[in-house]
């Protein structure tokens, strides 16, 4: 069964001087302020589309890696994943770097690297961002 998740943004003013609020409709977890300076300069307590993509990508990748490892008979105890989304004003998103550290009993480094590469290639967010260069650093704890 397909699912649809929703969020909406209310923006007021011009790009450079304006600001908006992102509301997470499906989960009801609240609202977050967003602005151009938070995107192109310093966050200053506000989010950006790139930070939201980083959150989506790190969580999706972690789920895909956990699933792949469990399917191979080596479920992880813990995965800690970060996603760094690079934004260049005037160009757009120029790359995403995933970093994962895993506590996975009974697995060697080569198998962990292969599972991480597979998750990078096949998680739905990676697939949605297929036109973007995605790199990966993976290590066992």
Automatic annotation (TrEMBL):
It holds the Pfam family OsmC. The lineage of its organism: Bacteria, Bacillati, Actinomycetota, Actinomycetes, Kitasatosporales. It comes from Streptomyces indicus. Gene3D superfamilies: 3.30.300.20. GO terms for biological process: response to oxidative stress. This is Osmotically inducible protein OsmC. GO terms for molecular function: peroxidase activity. Residues 21-48 are annotated as: Disordered.
């Amino acid at each position: 069964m397909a699912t649809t998740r929703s969020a909406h943004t209310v923006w007021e003013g011009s790009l450079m001087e304006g600001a908006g609020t992102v509301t997470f409709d499906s989960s009801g977890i609240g609202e977050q302020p967003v602005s151009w300076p938070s995107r192109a300069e310093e966050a200053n307590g506000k989010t950006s589309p790139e930070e939201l993509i980083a959150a989506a990508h790190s969580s999706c990748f972690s789920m895909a890696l956990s699933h792949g490892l469990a399917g191979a008979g080596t479920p992880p105890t813990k995965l800690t994943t970060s996603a760094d989304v690079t934004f260049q004003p005037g160009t757009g998103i120029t790359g995403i770097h995933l970093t994962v550290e895993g506590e996975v009993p009974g697995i060697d480094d080569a198998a962990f690297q292969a599972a991480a590469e597979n998750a990078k290639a096949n998680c739905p967010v990676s697939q949605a961002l297929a036109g973007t260069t995605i790199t990966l650093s993976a290590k066992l704890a």
